[in-house]
Amino acid sequence: xxDSSAKPIIELKNVKKVYGKDIVxxxxxxxxxxxxxxxxxxxxxxxxxxxxxxxxxxxxxxSDGDILINGESITKAKGKELRMLRRNIGMIFQSFNLVKRxxxxxxxxxGRVGYYPTWKSSLNxxxxxxxxxxxxxxxxxxxxxxxxxxxxxxxxxQQQRVAIARVLTQDPAIILADEPTASLDPQxxxxxxxxxxMLNEKHGMTVVINLHSVQLAREFGQRVIGVREGxxxxxxxxxxxxxxxxxxxxxxxxxxx
Amino acid sequence: MDTAMKKLPPKPVNLKKRLLxxxxxxxxxLLIVWSCTGIDFGGIKxxxxxxxxAIFTGIFNPDWSYVYNGTGEDLVSQLWSTICIAFLxxxxxxxxxxxxxxxxxxxxxxxxxxSRTGKIVLAIIRSFPEIVLALMFIKAVGPGSAAGVLAxxxxxxxMLAKLFSEAIENLDDGPNEAVxxxxxxxxxxxxxxxxxxxxxxxISNTLYRFDVSIRxxxxxxxxxxxxxxxxxxxxxxxxxxxxxGVILLGIILMVIVIDWIxxxxxxRLV
Lengths: 257, 270
Known about the structure:
Strand content of chain A: 25-35%
Oligomer: heterodimer
Number of helices of chain A: 9
Number of helices of chain B: 10
Distance between the termini of chain A: 31 Å
Helix content of chain A: 25-40%
Shape of chain B: extended
Radius of gyration of chain B: 26 Å
Helix content of chain B: over 70%
CATH class of chain B: Mainly Alpha
CATH topology of chain B: MetI-like fold
Largest interface: A-B, 33 and 21 residues
CATH architecture of chain B: Orthogonal Bundle
Order of helices and strands of chain B: HHHHHHHHHH
């Protein structure tokens, strides 16, 4: 994909996921994502985009194959090892997944839990630097004035930006975003995408996003991956991707719709 | 417009359903008749009416002098100790219930038998009547309030943990996933996502349980586990009907006030 000096950061090898007995989520997925890429995954609902993304940080266990993060297998990791790998992978969700009854600050600090022993974070013993880090992250998404507000007092777009601040505080090398704009209006969606772009460009994080919107994909994506029926059917640079290709990914060409 | 659809069509007759309804009605009537034949009404005394009358006049002429006399044996102090028993018992059971609730909530475990066994344990705890528990604790720690607190604390766990676990099962899994994705441990998930979201349900269910415990604590004294039940059974045995009357009035008042307060707090929580 990218230049030859690129270092692979996520590698999927013959990944297969079967739900229950015979519902196929993913089949024979082979994919390499390099450090610093901004990848957009497109496809219809139910095509397997979410399964693909969630298997990368193992919110979903895959049935077969292997997934390497920085050369280390997350599929085989256990306990602390798994938590250390996850600490390096931030995630943004469609429904924001903030703790609504907690303050914005506490939500953002949640991004740091992987850096503390459990007893320390449970007693809320975050260091001054980390609290400052959380505040700085909120400043970057223009929500510094909401630091002590309760999360459910914020609008949807603001909540998603708090979630971005949480990921920023976590300081991972990879960010997975699962339909981050699906429950937002077009204006707010753009703002959220710009924040994600900022994470990619300013902080050098590798970003992998699931998107419904072709328009947003076109505007922000560098590399496009098309998924249909659990298979990768397209993989290319955004600049080389024609409208017809998008049509093919979404409609399946013919009889599917 | 289709004129054929203008009129409300007649309700479709479902013969099977109708038969089923008739069947249920007949079985219910048969059950009532059958249970009546099972009880021997011959044991009712001839003086029943007269004594019932005495009880009624006594209850409606309460012994007001018993309300407060400063001895610590009066109505107000006994009601207060009943409330304390209920409060302590509920508090203890709420603490014990939390780990049980996480054990029994099926959304927390990948293996089905973990939550199933938790639910069975809770059902066993629930099925011990509190009177039986109180009698057992009286044997263990002696008669008095301590036995009442322990009986209530233990018995309430069965119900409270069940309610808690249902609240946990109904929680949105999203925030938990967010903590997991950030590299959080199971305890992190509970502390950062589950507990804050669960708190209103915890408080509301505990208050509700406190309502129930107040009623139970009034009864537990009958077997000697402290509280207002003890003077009540003494008054009953000595046929001091006006004292029975004032005690019952006191219990009613206490239950109403506590109901009202806890209802008010629960409404504010939502």
